[in-house]
Amino acid sequence: MLIEKQTELYSGKAKTVYMTNDPTRLILYFRDDTSAFDGRKIEQFTRKGEINNKFNAFIMEKLAAIGIPTHLERLLSAQESLVKRLKMFPIECVVRNIATGSLCRRLGVQEGMDLNPPVFEFFLKNDALHDPMINEYHIRTFHWAPIDQVEQMKEYTFRINDVLKQLFLEANLLLVDYKLEFGDFQGQLVLGDEFTLDGCRLWDVETRKKLDKDRFRQGLGGLIEAYEEVAQRLGASL
């Protein structure tokens, strides 16, 4: 079937999602927008949408190669990808390998502390409530996801962590933390949304220079240059 883009389904902070003539497929359009602090800080950067689209495809293909089901079908253009239409769970799975950000603020731990074993946290995906932390009892009580698929989310997330930590380390990068989102596709748990530098933290191994969206959050500058440097180190074609 020739896929045709149809009406907009919804627009998020940095992506717009479109319906297609196939009810089981969607098109993701990665915009050049960058936002932080629940949308209070917004700016556009030339080429950011293209970089995120291609970087996401690079990572999703790496994960598919180790047996993680993902929603990515293929790249359609510089800023568009064709994906399976999932029934998304309103849950963010966050893994922290090094202490920084909200973990330090909440628990008073020192920034840069190595976390062994990694810390796994669930958050409710709800902008109006500022994505509060939740646990498995909340998920079960409010029926946000079947408990067997919650267990599978954790299993997939730690497998992904093992693979990506090594992938980034070989590029002289530390995978500090990141978030994943999952959904159901015809009864199968599938990794959805995106894996881009908007949703993870990466530091240089030696200098601990930040090479992720914290450069925008903290006004450090050089956001696109940092994203391009990460892709270059990984050998991802942009």
SSE layout and pairing:
Blueprint: E1 5-11, E2 15-20, E3 25-30, E4 33-36, E5 41-44, H1 48-65, E6 72-75, E7 80-84, E8 87-88, E9 91-98, H2 102-107, E10 114-124, E11 133-134, H3 136-141, H4 147-169, E12 173-180, E13 182-185, E14 188-191, E15 200-204, H5 214-217, H6 223-234
Question: Mind explaining what this structure looks like?
Answer:
The protein is globular and about 50 Å long. The protein folds into two domains: 5-84, Phosphorylase Kinase, domain 1 (2-Layer Sandwich), CATH 3.30.200.20; 87-222, ATP-grasp fold, B domain (D-amino Acid Aminotransferase, Chain A, domain 1), CATH 3.30.470. Strand 2 (15-20) and strand 3 (25-30) form a beta hairpin. The chain has helices spanning 48-65, 102-107, 136-141, 147-169, 214-217, 223-234; strands spanning 5-11, 15-20, 25-30, 33-36, 41-44, 72-75, 80-84, 87-88, 91-98, 114-124, 133-134, 173-180, 182-185, 188-191, 200-204. It is 29% helix and 34% strand. The longest helix is centred in the middle third of the chain and has 23 residues, at 147-169. The protein is α+β, with helices and mostly antiparallel strands and 238 residues long.
